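Project outcomes to date are best conveyed with an example. Our students and postdoctoral researchers have been running inverse folding experiments weekly, and each run begins with a structure described purely in tokens. The record below, which covers 297 residues, was selected by the lab manager from last quarter's runs and is presented without edits.
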């Protein structure tokens, strides 16, 4: 059986799309994860539908032996757990073998955060006398001011932003909508960009605010290349990730006394526990400052 396309997973993935509004990227990742389990099941002379808890433990052991990161294993097991729940719901299986699985534990990984000084250097690095530089500066300003995910930023259209009210309407994960304030600085850069730079890109009257070369939405990969380029210009040595400015947005809010539930709403987190990682980041920063500055640290 082909576990990559036209497979037993199609109905399950279709259900995820309809019920949870998952993106094509997420659905593709689920398919790849389940396909890996399918290949393992085939090596045992079975199918993914018939695996026992002992078989799944063997699968976990093989992943650990291959040196796969715990976070990647957790993701694969989550996809498998959802698949079995779907089978039970349809009456295609009576039990969930994942209920008896002890998943590999993962330590809480704290995101790397840029200081407010480094963020300022990053924002000021693009040459705003050029069309590309003005676009890059505006994208970074909007991202840091709003805490958007990169994918949310790349999908922004003119109708999503009210410059008059200074807010952006975001369609996040699961097609959930939220309103996020922009702040005066980001709003000013957006006004300048839309007036002086956006007309010079492809499809100048198109709805996309930050287009790629074709006039369609910029890809996450293109944006990430621009961030790394700007970081080099700014002389920033810290390893960055596509979510660096989102993490900085949240941490700097928490550091300056913002209520955690407000940060949760701004980030579009479904669960407060996801947002709580930023309190840990703030505590780690305080520990570092204590060590550096306290005479008896």
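After processing, the design step wrote out the following sequence:
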């Amino acid at each position: 059986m082909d576990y990559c396309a036209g497979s037993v997973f199609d109905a399950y993935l279709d259900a995820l799309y309809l019920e949870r509004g998952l993106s094509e990227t997420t659905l593709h990742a689920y398919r790849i994860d389940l396909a890996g389990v399918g290949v393992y099941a085939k090596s045992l002379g079975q199918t993914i539908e018939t695996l026992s808890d002992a078989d799944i433990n063997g699968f976990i052991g093989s992943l650990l032996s291959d040196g796969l990161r715990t976070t990647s294993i957790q993701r694969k097991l989550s996809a498998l757990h959802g698949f079995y729940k779907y089978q039970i719901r349809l009456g295609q299986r009576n039990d969930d073998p994942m209920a008896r699985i002890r998943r590999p534990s993962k330590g809480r990984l704290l995101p790397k955060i840029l200081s407010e000084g480094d963020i300022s250097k990053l924002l000021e690095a693009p040459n705003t006398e050029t069309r590309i530089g003005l676009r890059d500066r505006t994208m970074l300003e909007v991202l840091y001011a709003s805490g958007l995910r990169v994918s949310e930023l790349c999908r922004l259209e003119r109708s999503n932003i009210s410059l008059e009210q200074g807010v952006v309407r975001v369609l996040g994960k699961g097609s959930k909508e939220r309103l996020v304030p922009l702040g005066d600085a980001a709003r000013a850069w957006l006004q300048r960009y839309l007036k002086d730079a956006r007309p010079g890109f492809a499809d100048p009257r198109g709805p996309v605010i930050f287009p790629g070369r074709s006039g369609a939405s910029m890809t996450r990969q293109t944006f990430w290349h621009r961030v790394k380029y700007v970081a080099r210009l700014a002389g920033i040595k810290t390893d960055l990730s596509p979510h660096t400015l989102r993490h900085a947005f949240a941490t700097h809010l928490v550091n300056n006394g913002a209520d955690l539930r407000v940060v949760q709403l701004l980030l579009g987190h479904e669960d407060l526990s996801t947002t709580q990682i930023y309190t840990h980041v703030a505590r780690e920063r305080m520990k570092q400052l204590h060590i550096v500055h306290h005479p008896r640290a």
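The radius of gyration is 23 Å. The longest strand covers residues 167-171. The training component of this project remains on track.
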